[in-house]
Amino acid sequence: KKMNDPMNKSEYIEASVNYENIIKEAIKTSQPLVGPRIDVNELTSEYVDNVKSGFMKGILDLSKKYKKLRKVRGDGNCFYRAFTFSLFENLIDRLNDQSTTADAEKQVSRMIQIVKESSPTLIQLGYEELSFDVFHSTFLELLALLNVNNLTHESLEVKFNEEGGTGEYIVWFCRLLTSLFVKTHPDRFTPFLEYGDNINNFCAREIEPVGVECEQIQIIALSEQLEVGVKIEYLDGEDFDEKSGLNSIKVNMESKNDAEVVLLFRPGHYDII
Predict the structure, then answer these.
(1) pTM of the entire predicted model
(2) CA angle, corner 85, sides to 81 and 86, nearest 5?
(3) How far apart (Å, rounded) are the C-alpha atoms in residues 196 and 19?
(4) Phi, psi (5° rounding) for residue 152?
């Protein structure tokens, strides 16, 4: 075969898959699943030459409200990973603060109940118990560690950085919990689907596969399923009113004073703040 001969279709697909795998491996070696706490201002090095002035201005605004952030690996699972890590870290902090211990204990108990009750509902929806049982158990085990105050920031970080370990099991189960909420509230979500699409197809295509990024539907569904308040700061490079600060959204915060999960959105990606 000559060097300048065009690839046939199968060769092109194989080359594309190989290239994608190389990129994935490079991401694995260069990015932890959940990074250590770093100063918010460390983001500036990523935007020094960016033509959108809103990035540098936005980082300055962020640094006035938040001191630290954690970067999360950009592999398509960043929202679910950032959401769950931020939630568990928030619960650890509140359990160790006497002024918030009682409320945090109630929330942990409620989440244990929600996760336990999800199993029969998933089976009713047609999922095989064997297909999710290990992931379901892993989530309950981590909640149980919170319940006996036996989870620290350090041990949480270790668990979430195991390749194919605890954190990744919890990420996948959160995808399933998101599907569960969407499927049990079809009238609410069907109007937001594209014409001709349906809830089951949407969940199978846009929620359950590992590596598929999330949109607003998934954020709302997971937040409400786990009864968690979420705040997302938007660092998208767009200009904003300095008096009101960066644009942000709040999800499931109607009955809450403070968000249990606070995330930073940058185009196509979520980190933890």
Answers:
(1) 0.89
(2) 115
(3) 34
(4) -115, 170
